[in-house]
Amino acid sequence: MLEEEKIYQIIAKEFAGEISDLERFQLEAWKKASFLNQNIYLTLKRAWHENSVVTNPSREEKLFQKITARINEDDQPEKPKPLYLQSTRKKNFYGKYAIAAMIIIMVMSAWFLQNMQTQNNQKAVNPAVAFIEKTNPNGQKSNIHLSDGTVITMNAGSRIKYPAVFPKDKRVIELEGEAFFAVAGDSKRPFTVLSGTLSTTALGTAFNIKAFPEEKRLKISLAEGKVVVNRIDQPDEERYVLNPGESIEYNKQNRNIKKIRFSPESEFAWKEGIITFKKASFDEIVHTLERWYGVKFIVQRKKVIKKGFTGSFKKKSLEEVLNGIGFSSDFQYEIRDKTVVIRCEDYRIK
Question: What is the pTM of this model?
Answer without folding.
Answer: 0.62
